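#struct-help
A.M.: can someone run this one for me? Single chain, 186 residues.
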Amino acid sequence: MSEILDINFLDFKKQAELMAISIGWFEAITGLPVSIRGADKNRTGIRVNIGDMDNEGRNFTAFSAFKPSEFGIYFAAEKVARMRALGEVSSANSANDKLRFPGAIAVTLNGYVYSCGVSGLRSEEDVFIAVMNLSCALQMSPWDVCANVRQHGGVLPDCFMDIDHYLHAAVNSMRVEDCLPHSLAA
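D.P.: on it. Structure tokens below:
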């Protein structure tokens, strides 16, 4: 069997890199004009849980970008736990309108599973930030992360395929560098 990728999610430098990506994309998304993003409630921060699912939870980190609500902190963990318990690669597969939200995805590489759960924004934006974190951590393009999730039966937001949606261009990029925050209003 292939080796697990040598990614130490407990490493301070890796955590700082992923936190910078999360903060940057949170600011880019919440900074969009109402004419692009639409009206929304005030978003105070996000919670991110990321790691490999095959190492008994020992290669895992969680952090907050700004000040997420208590619900946001809870749901970031719940999305990953539910996805893992049900053997899914996307929390959208078991989402419903009764407090089961999308926002976590998992990528399978060399027989190992790496997951990221985000909560604090709209569901499609949570998934977007999860894609960007895994793209950076695994050195895969955002498009490759999405393709991997789909290949393993995961559901992703429809807006990722809508060329008129503000998340479309970034999430469909074929370049690893595009996981880094930049303007979505272009």
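A.M.: thanks! DSSP finds six helices and four strands in the chain.
D.P.: also worth noting: The chain has a mean pLDDT of 87.
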